[in-house]
Amino acid sequence: MPYINLLPWRETARKERQQQFLAILGVISGLVVFLVFLLNMYYSERLAGQEYRNNYLRSEISILDQRIREIRNLNKTKDDLNQRIELIELLQESRNLGTQIFNEIARVVPAGIYLTKVEKKGSGLLINGKSESNNRLSNMMREIERSELLEGADLDSIVSAEREDQLLSDFSMTIAVKGYIPEQKQGGKSK
């Protein structure tokens, strides 16, 4: 007799395939979850490493910023010291300036001119005197312009003698001094 299978084999086969599918789906889901977990750990470690590097760089930058501030302070101190040194050198050079000015005035004043007053005015000198002639005053002004210490002779006034028997004319002249350090500059830098 022929063999007839009356059992529901198709349903059993379907159930077996469904169980295999669910088993494979479970294994794949487990693998996916495991891979996501591994990726999460990997990127978390990378993120933590990057945070560590960022924190290290921030700390190094703050150290360098502090050093830059110190260098700027040192440069400012250095500039201040250089200004003081320059001022001291200028003062040292102009230490004998008064004596040199009087020697130079004696050299540039020709015969026939008599000085009655030499007064310091700012960075220059105001000279009052008497002159036998205007030509002698011109010679004095030329000598002042040739001088290494004096410059800028400016004749303010010439007043001729009121009486005929008086031969001398009064004059007033301002002269600048080369290399003179004004007093307010000295006071401003030495503080």
From TrEMBL:
Carries keyword Oxidoreductase? no
Keywords, in A-Z order: Coiled coil, Membrane, Transmembrane, Transmembrane helix
Q: Which residues cross the membrane?
A: 21-43
In its UniProt record, which GO terms are filed under biological process? type IV pilus assembly; type IV pilus-dependent motility
What sections of the sequence does the record tag as coiled-coil?
64-91
Could you name the domain of life of the organism this protein comes from? Bacteria
PANTHER family according to UniProt: DNA UTILIZATION PROTEIN HOFN (PTHR40278), TYPE IV PILUS INNER MEMBRANE COMPONENT PILN (PTHR40278:SF2)
> This protein is called what?
PilN domain-containing protein
